[in-house]
Amino acid sequence: MPLVSHTGDVALARAEFDRRPGANLRYCLRKRFVWMQRYLGPESFAVEVGCGAGFSEKFTRAGRLELTDAEPRPWVARVVDAHELPYADASVDVLIANNVIHHLAYPDRF
Q: Is 1 a residue whose pLDDT tops 60?
């Protein structure tokens, strides 16, 4: 069996995270997201583009955090195309694109 299995299965990743108490994964995810907290205030409207398994909502706090992705999932608030975000200019305080830009067809347009 390969060392890494089920790569890209975000539903399984989220289910396993909730089911297993593994401290290593929680530590790594906390490190991935906790530094962002200084940019997220109680009045902030933050949008995560390409949220994947949606772990940011477990480790960050903003006034409002909207999870978006290209595919519908139960935790995704809005399905969007990252190249054509449906938000008015200056309506989003913080845009999170964590581990996602390399997945975009045209990262320079993003």
A: no
